[in-house]
Amino acid sequence: MTERAYHVLFLCTGNSARSILAEALLERIGAPRYRGFSAGSHPKAKPHPAAIATLGAKGFDISGLRSKSWDEFVAPGAPDIDLVITVCDNAANESCPIWPGSPAKAHWSHVDPAATIGSAAERRDAFEAIYEKLATQVEALVRLDPANLRDEELAQAVAKIGSVNR
User: Fold this and answer.
1) If you classify domain 6-164 with CATH, what class do you get?
2) Where are the domains of the chain?
3) Which one of 83, 88, 91, 92 is the catalytic residue?
4) Average pLDDT for residues 38-50, to the nearest whole number?
5) For the chain, which end, N or C, has fewer CB atoms within 10 Å of the first or last residue's CB respectively?
6) CB atoms near residue 127 (< 10 Å)
7) What is the overall mean pLDDT for the chain?
8) For residue 117, is pLDDT > 80?
């Protein structure tokens, strides 16, 4: 019998940019030990086009990416979540649902690239910068061995990853 992958849910208010990027990164970098998911408290209708363009340009399969409510992850039949990481300050300050299984929680603060005002090149650069920061953090995350850490230790280690690359 094989052990189930470690499930990580990335949260952001709109689930259109940062959390979508983090989900895709963990799905690529962390497989098969980790699975990435994302959601938002007030999800947009769809992922931000620049987030999709950033991932597409790097060869990610973008076909299954969509903005979704965090309610999907507390509903019956939802995947069991082991770790919840908020990637925007708004989501970190919101009253989150009570997650089944009481997953560990951590926060990685990132500015919203979708809020960038400027030329098309400046907006692309903002998404690229967030992508690179998240990639570094996700790489550090997958080096952790959650099976050998208590929830508090894991939360501290993941929060430290978020504070290093700000």
Assistant:
1) alpha beta
2) 6-164
3) 88
4) 94
5) N
6) 24
7) 90
8) yes
Tell me, yes or no, if 88 is annotated catalytic: yes
Burial of 95 (0-12, 13-18, 19+ CB in 10 A): exposed
pLDDT per position as a tens digit, 64-115 = 999 999 999 999 999 999 999 999 876 556 666 777 888 999 999 999 999 9
Write b or e for each residue in 37-47: b if 16 or more Cβ atoms lie within 10 A of its Cβ, otherwise e. bbbbbebbeeb
Which of the residues 8, 11, 12, 158 is marked catalytic?
Answer: 12
Token duo for residue 25: 């990164």
Q: Which one-letter amino acid corresponds to residue 150?
A: R
Q: Which of 22, 9, 4 is nearest to 105 (CA)?
A: 9
Of the residues 29, 74, 96, 135, only one is catalytic, namely 96
Given this model, what pLDDT does residue 1 score? 40
